[in-house]
Specification:
It is built from ten helices and no strands. The protein has 213 residues and is mainly α.
Amino acid sequence: MPAPLFETSWARCWPALGAAGDGVALRDRLLDAYAEPQRHYHTQQHLGECLALCERHLALAEHAAEVEIALWFHDAVYDVRGRDNEARSAAWARQALQAAGVGSTVIDRVEALIMVTRHQALPQGLDQQLLVDIDLSILGALRARFQAYEAQVRAEYAWVPRWVFRRKRREVLREFLARAPIYSRPELRDEFEAQARDNLAHSIRQLAFWKLF
């Protein structure tokens, strides 16, 4: 049986989208996807952390159910060697929501929310900002959780040679650190920005030592 957080979140957002039925079979397929063996960070733990934070900040959203369902789908497809995971996740969301009779305008917004988690461009609009801030909240987690996250990311990329991973990971972390600010919404910025900057700087320094990872 799914954890209460997952049950509550799904029961809240699915009918609010105007979707037919209870969608429970789809919910369980998504949870199964987040439990795939190749995942170490992009797991039910990550999904749960995102949904718990979303629940705290639903009042900030213009279309709360869309933000919440986009979080359910944002890592639904995760191929550790893939370059189109977000696009495939968005396509799954589109197909599932269309099958449930959700309106095209809502589906378009959900698809855009999922695609912005590529983090290749700054989010546009309040809901995209909120969703990206939630997805990046791990950067501002307490140090022990952040270090566990870094180890989980390395485990997903275990097939990448150490020296390549260290170089590429430093590049990614430096890009996040260069954002001013990292978090768009003031409420999440107040909570996570300072810790995220400290975590990122710490990890970048640590990655300079070959013994790490």
